[in-house]
Amino acid sequence: MTRPDPAKDGAQMSFDGRMSYGDYLQIDRILTAQVPLTGAHDELLFIIQHQTSELWMRLALHEMDAARAALAGDRPREAFKMLARIARIFEQLNSAWDVLRTMTPADYSTFRDGLGQSSGFQSWQYRLIEYAVGNRNAAMLKPHAHRPDLTAILEAELARPSLYDEALRLLARQGLPVPADVLSRDLREPWTVHDGVAAVWAQVYRDPQAHWEAYELAEKLVDFEDYFRRWRFNHVTTVERVIGFKRGTGGTSGIHYLKRMLEVELFPELWHLRTSL
Fold it and tell me: What number is the average pLDDT over the span 171-183?
């Protein structure tokens, strides 16, 4: 059997002075960013799982910014693609838990002390995602107070309309009766269930053909939150499987804190209306 020679097919084989795959993707920087602090075998898994999750979150934020800009610019169909991509990103984030769950409690105990007080609870990108979709709690700025640059990013997010705010503003511009107090609300405050908003979404769902773009937008939001909830649930089950009911390294109550987060609804009116339709 003759082995193929890519050069004969025109493949570039010499990269002296040229940009290569590794150059473009900064592979050397990426592969040297894992610095285990112990000799434990599973610490590398732990580091890579969290680093790759942060990369996916970076992309989710990139898409979320673009989706909000599209909604604000009355281009909802552009936003639909981005929202669909964000849901798929969270599908990837969900799959990452499957890999981490191969780590047993005994494995984790070999390097847990090396983490000090570091915890995923302190992820500023995760906090930014929470703020961007409307789950806004100014108290969660405190873990980032030692980094004025990160605090400034999070404060800027609190000052702008969330994804849900932009969706409702779009509906108002399309002629739907979104209550005025919703459109002028304090953006720093977390979203709370609003009967007037529930009535607007019910109107959309009772006549999808008359409000097709709003209807499709609603389903894209639900699709995203569906994957986001699964991510939270998988986080809970993974933590419980690995550390049980111990306190988290960052000082939280661990599994008890994470289970409370499962009760948070990002777009509550879109979920509640299913019962009344």
Answer: 97
